[in-house]
Amino acid sequence: MSQFKDRIFRSVRANLNDVLDRIREFESQGGFETLFDEERSRLGDGHTGGTDPVPPRGGKKGIRDYYANLEVPYGSDIDTVKASYLKLMRRYHPDRYTNDPEMEALATELSQEISQAYTAVKSWLKNGGY
Fold first, then answer.
1. Which domain covers residue 92, as residue numbers?
2. Do 3 and 57 have their domain in common?
3. Same-domain check for residues 70 and 122
4. How far is CA 53 from the centre of its chain?
5. Which position among 5, 39, 69, 117 has the lowest Cβ density within 10 Å, counted as fewest Cβ atoms?
């Protein structure tokens, strides 16, 4: 029985080392940033909707940033986006933090970002651009 366990252990270790080698190779070739650049170039040329759904580096926010602000996965439907928006607005509404001025200011800022994100995503889903 111990020989069987040893063979399994060696096999798992070999597979793990193979996976680690592939990860190191992937990272040495640019990693996920390279994949994101390829997706940016692909979506930037052929998509419809007027504006780039993937934010350019150092540029204005893209639609994916707004989805992240709303804490929903990219491509969610309007009902999911609306439910998340309402949940976040209840959580971060400035009136909930009237006793603490710092938290009230932070909640005001967050609620404005959430509202802007909801408006952009809603427009994106309805009209194909924001």
1. 50-130
2. no
3. yes
4. 12
5. 5
